[in-house]
Specification:
Blueprint (H helix, E strand, L loop, with lengths): L31 E5 L7 E7 L2 E12 L12 E8 L14 H14 L11 E11 L4 H15 L8 E9 L2 E4 L3 H6 L2 E8 L4 E5 L2 E2 L3 H47 L1
Parallel strand pairs: 4-5
Antiparallel strand pairs: 1-2, 2-3, 3-5, 6-7, 6-8, 8-9, 8-10
The structure holds cytidine-5'-diphosphate.
């Protein structure tokens, strides 16, 4: 059930027991569930439920570049298309891609490109299609996280994964992983992404009010959350291969039984 009716926000973003409106502690992530290999038509795919966000990512490539004039003779290109379904938010979203979708597509591409070995794929493209079916705050972070997973599922060589989360300030308190209402009614919002092969920040946006000391505290706060998200990504990928291994062993056993 939506918490916000139009632009009416609650007076406080905390309950009487000190927890956030959805029952979380300050440093607690929303529940996260990830799956890979769920779009049969794509070369690789992933699905992410993160709180009320529901997001698919599908990857194609390396493949021929269309339109041709975009292709580069010395390296491959990465194209990311972030789209939010018309029914994904409380107010009907206009179906045509807007400026926000173009901005988030660019952000996700910037986070992912350093992970790839594009110089090994001249004249080709990798395309990542992200479809947000339900949006409730932090979809750029969730999209970056699920896009990396889909690329890994496609078997695209990568230096590492990238993980992303937003930290911020609501009613003057520092919190991890802002929900939609916290994003809108809060004081500050700081989406962060980290590429694990060099542990460098590949996304840092900022919206709101904070000083430099607070910024450093926010970065510390994000670290544990990012590690937790990375672990879920790794476990999701591992569980796919464990399942494949089990199926192969079962098939082998069945064949032996037939002999
Ligand atoms: O999703 P993210 O936090 O990365 O981006 P945002 O532009 O800060 O949007 C915050 C939230 O506002 C989204 O997650 C949606 O829940 C909501 N939103 C909306 O209700 N209608 C839109 N047209 C765009 C976003």
């Amino acid at each position: 059930m939506p918490l916000i009716i139009k632009d009416e926000y609650p007076e406080t973003l905390f309950r009487e027991d000190g927890k956030r409106l959805d029952g979380r502690d300050l440093n607690e992530l929303r529940p996260i569930k990830m799956e890979v290999g769920i779009v049969p038509n794509a070369d690789g795919s992933a699905y992410l439920e993160w709180g009320n966000n529901k997001i698919y990512a599908a990857v194609y490539g390396p493949r021929e570049v269309h339109p041709h004039h975009l292709s580069k003779p010395d390296k491959g290109i990465l194209r990311v298309f972030y789209r939010m379904a018309t029914f994904s938010v409380f107010d009907r979203k206009r179906p045509a891609p807007g400026r926000r979708e173009k901005e988030i597509s660019m952000i996700v591409a910037d986070c992912i490109e350093p992970l790839l070995f594009l110089e090994l794929y001249p004249g080709t493209s990798f395309e990542v299609f992200i479809e947000v079916m339900d949006a409730d705050g932090g979809t750029r972070c969730a999209s970056t996280t699920v896009a990396a997973l889909a690329l890994a599922d496609a078997g695209v060589p990568m230096k590492s994964l990238v993980s992303s989360v937003a930290v911020g300030k609501i009613d003057g308190k520092k919190v991890v992983d802002l929900s939609g209402i916290e994003d809108k009614a809060g004081d500050a919002d700081l989406p962060i992404a980290i590429t694990w092969y060099n542990e460098e920040i590949s996304l840092l946006q900022f919206d709101g009010d904070m000083n430099l000391d607070e910024m450093n505290e926010f970065l510390d706060l994000a670290k544990d959350a990012l590690k937790e998200i990375h672990q879920i990504q790794l476990n999701t990928l591992k569980s796919k291969y464990i399942k494949l291994q089990e199926e192969t062993l079962k098939q082998k056993d069945n064949k032996k039984g037939e002999k």
